[in-house]
UniProtKB/TrEMBL annotation:
Keyword check for Signal: yes
Signal peptide start and end residues: 1-25
Protein species of origin: Alkalihalophilus marmarensis DSM 21297
Family under the similarity heading: Belongs to the bacterial solute-binding protein 5 family.
Name of protein: ABC transporter substrate-binding protein
Keyword Signal: yes
Gly residues compositional bias, start-end: 37-47
Amino acid sequence: MKKLSKFLKSAAILSVLSAGLVACSSEPSNDPSSDGGETGENTGGGDLKVAVMSDPVSLDPHGANENVSNSINSTIYDRLVHMETDLTIQPALAESFEQIDDTTWEAKIRQGVTFHDDSELNAEVVKANLDRVRDPEVASPVSFLFGMITDVTVEDEYTVHIETEFPFASLPAHLAHPGGSIISLESIEASYEAMENGGQPFSTVNEAPAGTGYFKFEERSPGQSVTLVKNEDYWHEEKAKVDSVTFTVIPEDLTRIAELETGGVDIIFPVNPSDVSRVENGAETSVQQSNSTRMVYLGFNTEVEPFDDVNVRRALHMAVDKQALIDGVLDGTGVIADGPIAPDVFGYSDDIDRIEHDPEQAKELLAEAGFPDGFQTTILTDDDRERQDLAQALQYQLAEIGIDIEIDTYEFGTYLERAGQGQSELFLGSWGTVTLDGDYGLYPVFHSANKGPAGNRSFIDNEEIDSLLQQAREATDDQERLDFYEAAQNELAAESPYAYLYFPEIIAGVRDDVEGFWQFPSTTLFLRDVELNR
């Protein structure tokens, strides 16, 4: 019998602790236990205000997989297991989670837990959630996380068995993802009823979310704000420290900063690197910076000309000066991405083939591909300021090898839709390894089964890559998994569906009277321990 604590060692998730993943550039500290505010008596409570750059895609955790949605949903919902701030995975709604044979996990469900709609948590509810997120009719964008699950059975009122198609060591890490959130049975039933009447699968939950989390839904003004209030009946001994939190949508970077400076909001995310000094030097504001597992890339749609030619893809990859991008776009706040997963993620290897900056070799590859004078193309991006700066920098760099780029900009939701549907030639994107496990960093992004919205927006279809990623999923030995991930990354270097660019630092702005704020390496906000020292 393999218990959860043993899983942590076998999956090497604890390796991130020794790597010093989280580093704060200035007070207040991003360690929830530290005192980062000005001196003064903290009486608790208060209304926390957080400014974000975009509206959440959905308040149904099975209906979205982007940072704003994940950050909000992580406060409304709990999961069977969750990632603690020390980056270990621990039981949550499952008071125990054990592997009882190679392909069977047993969850003992916590008793006495109620949802925000006053319904009760039990094994039937857990089964309904795991069945729903895998239901093809629902078409959840996070279904790829649970595609290896073949059956969920209720053993008794508070015991569930989860069967997988093959041994899958990463299952706890996947269940800890926000996509593994548990919603009430009433919410699921309402969702299916809406579908039967021609409605969308995520609309009813989006309008009336009901989880078990430390905050519960109060109201939403689409495109403007989401307000949550403290769950006074939260099952965990650690409850929210503030009375409410309002997420306000402020797309413009400088407007977010102005609101932070005047006290209109308490936390802003993200902060553009070029604005760090302004926030850092503010009278009552500071920045929090930490390493991230988010890889920013230039993507190639491998199904359209000329990017169906590997020589063209490799040529553009070689033409990119990554350090210049970090210095110019990020003001130095990031590290070069030589591969698709960050150094602190299980599956990272120093021994992978790197595509070095070599403009002359790039020109030779273009000539071999039939483009000695280059060509014209478009790059798809969203209206984030960093992405805009990045697009312009790449436009300039690639012009050196004769690539004439037009920039197509859309708001974030439209950008995601177009990229997922393959309505692009070049596109800018990012992918964070939320689980800190290589399976999440590679399988959804590069396996052919996930073409489109699930993550494979380059539409790469390579049998060798598919085979290596599948073998890594099924391996039970850590070193075997690492070997498969290394081989897969070398094959990806040869195919070059992405030009990996950099891993940016996470940068948030906070008021000096905010304590206990923290962000996971995936950039998901953690707000349970936030206090207002006023």
